[in-house]
Amino acid sequence: MLTPGEPAETLRTEAEVESALGQATPAVARAIEDCLQGRDPSEPQVVDLFRTGETDYRVLLKAADFLRWRTVGDDVTYVVNRNINFTNVCVKRCGFCAFSRTAASTEGYHLPPEEIVRRTLEAERYGASEVCIQAGLPPGMDGRYYIDLCRTVKEAAPSIHLHAFSPEEILYGSRQSRLSIHDYLRELKEAGIGSLPGTSAEILDDRVRKIIAPGRISTDQWIKVITTAHSLGIPTSSTIMYGHLETPLHRARHLLLLRDLQRRTHGFTEFVPLSFIHSEAPMFADRRIPGIRAGASRSEVLKMHAVARLVLNGDIPNIQASWVKEGLDLGQACLQSGANDFGGTLMNESISTAAGAPHGQLVRPRDLRRRIRQVGRTPALRSTLYAILRRFPDESQDGQDPLDTLDAGRKDPFGSYHQLIQQEEFRFSSGGSRQNP
Ligand code: SF4
Questions:
Q1: Residue 139 CB less than 6 A away from ligand 1
Q2: N or C: which end of the chain has fewer CB within 10 A?
Q3: Which domains, from first to last, does the chain contain?
């Protein structure tokens, strides 16, 4: 079993791989071997990989680490970015979401465009190359709100990469504006959007979606938004949320679906496994869904990253370990099990924090670099689209990022979600979301 922070026992030669595979059960060894040889695993083989027991599991993680090393080398990338979740007021009630509030809630907030711009400019001053804007779906929103917001932010900060609006938000914006998804995305592109987060995917199976989030964007609609974005030259990330109700078969189908979409469009920048944070999630708290689980176990998390590496390696070579969901210790173990990216600094993480994730709202670049080095790898600063901006092979040459010096020791120097929902200054009023920036 991997210990966070310690280099894993690694495989680096074909002979070592062969010897490790000899310890696995024949079916699992064959599935791993197929992936290592670039042959597509079948759906039952991927299910078998997710079901591996103790011995096979150790071989699986080591093989995924080998494949990561052979494909993308020892760099671990990260991005300096800021999340701006500009409102928590939402017309939907997804069962896993502890972030959203109703329009009548006394904890509803809505940041005006000038505050979103202020946060963007502040992020830039602290070295961010990206802002990630996602939020609830406020009732009665002017359909052009997202387009106008894009334009406003890009006019104020032309160099910032705008990674914004989940497929659920794109669908909402297009409906509210009565534009087709294609035309809505085209206008967003003209307004300066750089990429979309491939969130709101959870498990791309409508039977599961209807149970955990009735009324959520459907699988077909998610695919439509993503493939249309890709056809317009707007890249997206890809995600899965697991550890709730899904089975190994759902996970396998989800990965294979993403792989097949990527072969058609080539628009995914990365795959980000997101484990379900249960503590504040309504569907866990009220026990209304029989069989709902309290998130993924440690071994399930590592397995997810390892299987993703094996299945997606040739099509989506960037596999992200999310410190927000897993914490930095388990995140390091993910880096030793197939992942090659540590995500972003975030500055204002709200959605997982609201759901009860205890890992904070910001990780400073020097802390990400330290954690990366602890597992024997080389930190590399990247752009949203995975251009390497700077490698850090020698710690003594690192210098200091503006974020590293900011209020050292203060936990939430950019404020917290819990402060935000108490602040009267940004209280949601039903007129606010209808105004254009
Ligand atoms: S996940 Fe998004 S769409 Fe669903 S309730 Fe939360 S904010 Fe709304």
A1: no
A2: N
A3: 14-71 (no CATH), 74-434 (3.20.20.70)
